[in-house]
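Progress report, Aim 2. The chain analyzed during this reporting quarter is listed below.
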Amino acid sequence: RLNPPLLALSGFGMRYQPGAAATLADIRFDLARGRCLGVVGESGSGKSTLATALIGLLPPGAEAWGEGQFDRSLIDWHDQRAWRVRRGQRIGFVFQDAAASLHPLRSVQSQLREMLASQSAIAQALEEVGLPADAEFLRRLPQQISGGQRQRLMLALALARQPDLLIADEPTSALDALASAAIRRLLLQLKSERGLALILVSHDLDTVTAVADDLLLLRQGRIVTSGATATVLQGRTEAYVQQLLRCRPRLLDNPRRLGLPATPAPAPIIAAPMARPAL
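Predicted structure tokens for the chain:
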């Protein structure tokens, strides 16, 4: 039996200014602890707008409506005091561009110190996301670590206050195939071990297929279809679903990849390995 919803939306919508056309309309879903909802769609479909709305970051002058509940409490979309309590403490967020989100002139340790008081807590946070906690790494600036390490650092910061819900906006978009596969495995591990509720926003259907229990497909701010990941992708009844599937590498030929894998999700197939230069 599934847990009761941690986050539930019904009829949610928003517009950037009064009188403008709705950017999002009639968004509805339930998300329980230990489950992952994948939000998928083409560029401009409203994925990132929905993600930022779910942490209360509405642009000035924007209007939002519809019923929302977080941990059985009604959401007032315009109550910034309540959102400040939820953000960081109850809801963690990983922004799309880790390099732009981290302070370029502050070390790894300095940025973690804002969230964690002790050195042991910092070491534990880094260990959980697969990063070293030695002094040399802690002294590095964001531009001195790899893209995959920056994304892991963002996850460590988002998880520092033990949130109930993690929202990750395109966490693999700037990563190569191997780093993307590592982030997928990490998200699966965090969901399983912490019992996190996870919203994964991505155009990368390989990542979503590997991690998400349920899918919500957006187009022009509206839901095209939603349901269990395997059902949505195997059915292919919607023309929009077929269009998205044609724009990705072949994955669905192997039906075992449609559920949550018992072993870490494999990296996408690379056409040919790069030859090592002769020394």
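Strands lie at 5-15, 24-32, 36-41, 63-70, 73-74, 91-94, 165-169, 197-201, 214-219, 222-228. DSSP finds eleven helices and ten strands in the chain. These observations will guide the mutagenesis work planned for the next reporting period.
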